[in-house]
Amino acid sequence: MLFRPTLRHTARTYRWQCTRTNSTFVKPSQFGQPLHPSHPHLVKDGELTPGIHADEYESRRRALMEGLPPNSLVICAAAKVKYMSGRTYKFRQGSDFLYLSGLLEPSAAFLLRSSPSTPRGYTYSIFHHFHTPSQALWDGPRTNDITLHDLFGADDVCPIDELPRALKKALRDADYVYVDQPQETRRTRKSGSAWKALLEHLAPASLADAKADLLSALSDLGARSGKIRPLAPEVGRLRAIKSPAEQKIMRAAADVSAHAHTKTMRFAQPGMSEHVLAAHFEYLCAREWSQRPAYVPVVASGPNALTIHYTANDQLIREDELVLIDAGCELDGYASDITRTFPASGRFTPAQAELYSAVLAAQKRLVSLSNASAGYSLYQLHTESVHLLADELRAIGFNLDRSSVGLMAELYPHFVGHPVGIDLHESSHFDRDAPLKPGMVITIEPGIYVPPRPHYPKHFHNIGIRIEDEVLVGETYPTVLSVNAPKEVADVEGACTGALGLEPL
């Protein structure tokens, strides 16, 4: 029996739909991001971003502050607007800033200060840039102070150019300061230039004298060992475990991408360019409310699949080649990450099917081990993936030594997976040696890439296969979020030939 994907969790059903097309809403929006009054089809009442209620953002901030030493100060800045050819890219908020605030605007920052005497145990101050009428004419509105106080939960709302003066006092009073350097300056060896870069990142529009005062305060702090600490590891600890609301969004994002993978299999034909499949995939995701691709898609036909991060996507697909597509959408702030490999002609050749089945057998076993009760860490899963792939390859004629060194060096040179969430790779502070915990979302993506070397079976030369699923770790069993992307041989062929009943558009 052929696998038939069920689409009950796609964005169309995940979205909270208005009951009438003429439902009351504000147009044009008076806010700097979609909120319920202006976008009731996207955001429920009380939510700051689609699917995440203001109360959840509050609980995240509280959990962060409760995990820090007494009298701590947290400083977090919004992402900067990025430019190409003199025009802006679509803005994407900094991941930690988004996780803690839900605010989707640039030119903003917030401070969290320990305050045991207050009901929630901390104070929350937002600094932002409110557009003048002239600026709003060109770039639209920004969220007003009343909304930032009443809906976003800020105790204080101030103009961004007041941040240096507020910081100077806050820094003087705090015992510990949690802040991250801008990404582009974290490797600098000159502390003075590092502080200047941090200041420019936090308050680029501030007056020179205010910047000078704050720069002096930051420099003084830098000389006091241990007072300034990185924020990202503390937030990363919280982000590693997905809440039920996050899991729902990630399931929807994975379903949108899985649906796009399945339809792109049906759409693909020999003679097409790889970039056409990439465009088709992104179009299908955008139709389901995806805001952007989670990353540049890999559409690698034939031997191009031997390049792990092949993104040129500019060659023609030949008859009887395999096509490897590594692609996923970003939906409501959360990434999806799925890889499927399928035959351009609709049917695997015997050699392709044999190698594909070997990778699939290993991948399915690894997915089954992705639960907390199994006790595996991500690193142990990788070690297991090497053993499983080596056994599968030996069974189909590969002459591999017992150490599997050749396998890891050339046939399988990448890691088995990574955590995924707001960022595609939420692994900068993820402990690969720690056992998996319920609520984590990881990828499981073993692959085999066979170069034309004489010591490998010739009928497998120039074949690259990777099969990647998103997996929600449970206590006793995993949940495959990307389950609606077919991966069994018969189901993949059924998707390619139309036997699953899906059309390419």
From TrEMBL:
Residues 52-188 form the Aminopeptidase P N-terminal domain. Gene3D superfamilies: Creatinase/methionine aminopeptidase superfamily, Creatinase/prolidase N-terminal domain. GO terms for cellular component: mitochondrion. The keyword Membrane does not apply. Keywords: Hydrolase, Manganese, Metal-binding. Belongs to the peptidase M24B family. This is Aminopeptidase P N-terminal domain-containing protein.
